[in-house]
C-alpha cells in the first residue's frame, strides 16, 4: 500500500485527513503531522520515523503532502525523504488531492499516482462562480 | 545598509522569514550561517530553494558569513542573517560581523530546555551564548513575526532562566 502523510502549519492537515474520513469512511495509511512547536530537526525526525514505520510495514511508497512550498514543512520533508525514489513530496495540498490519493492508490503505480495527484490538485483550483 | 535582521531560528529559512520579515524589510540577500549545512551541498540547495527568486541567498559557514558581512560590499546589500542556534550567532558576533542586535525568532523545545517564551526555549549553552551577545553590546529581542509582540531579553531574564535549569 502507498501511504501518505500530510504535514502542515497548525491543524490544517489533521482537519483535511478528518474530512476525508467523513467523505470516504475510515481510511488506512493516511496521517497528519503539524509543525506547531517543533524545531526543523524534530519535524524531520518525526517524518523519518513515519517513513521507517511504512518501510517496516511493507509500504510500496510514501507521499508527503505539505501545505506550502518553501516553508519548514517542505524543507523538513525534503531532508527526511532524501533521494529515495519511493518518496514524493507534493506542495499545495488540498482536499481533492487527498480524495484522489485514496481513490487511486491501489490501481496506479507510484509515479503515475504522483503525476495524477499534481494534476488533480491544480484542476481543483478554479473559479467556480461569483460572476 | 548592511544587516537589517540577525535572527536565531532553528527552522532557518521558512515562511516567517521569506514572507513575514522579507515583506517588511525587503532584503536583497538572506545569509544562512551554518557550518553543518554549508558543508553539505545537497542540504544547502534544499534551504536555498526556499528563498523567493527576487532575494539572493548564501548558505555559508559561520566564518565565511562573518567575513562576507565585514566586507565593504556588504554595506550595499540589505541582508537578513540567520543562524540555527544562539551559539552560532555568538560566534558570528565574535568574528566581527556587524550585527544591529539579535532577534530570537524560534528556539523550539528540546530536552533540557526551559521556556522563556512559547517560541523561545533555552538550555545552559543557549544562555551562555546569549550572555556573550549581551556582553558584546548587542540588544536581544524575542519576536516571531513583524507586528508581533516584541520582548526585550536582558540579563535579568537570563538569570531567571538560569535559576530554572
- Under CATH, the topology of chain A is which? Rossmann fold
Order of helices and strands of chain A: EHEHEHEHH
Strand order of the largest sheet of chain A: 2-1-3-4
The class by helix and strand makeup of chain A works out as alpha/beta
Helix content of chain A: 40-55%
Question: H/E element string of chain B?
Answer: EHEHHEHEHEEEHEEH
What would CATH call the class of chain A?
Answer: Alpha Beta
State the separation between the terminal residues of chain B, measured CA to CA. 39 Å
Tell me the β content of chain B: 15-25%
CATH topology of chain B: Fructose Permease
By DSSP, the count of extended strands of chain A is: 4
What is the CATH C-level name of chain B? Alpha Beta
What share of residues of chain B is helical?
25-40%
Largest interface, with counts of residues having CB < 8 Å to the other chain, equals: A-B, 16 and 19 residues
Report the principal-axis shape of chain B.
globular
What's the name of the CATH homologous superfamily of chain A? Phosphotransferase system, mannose-type IIA component
Q: Work out the count of structural domains of chain A.
A: 1
Please compute the radius of gyration of chain B using only Cα atoms.
15 Å
Structural class of chain B: alpha/beta
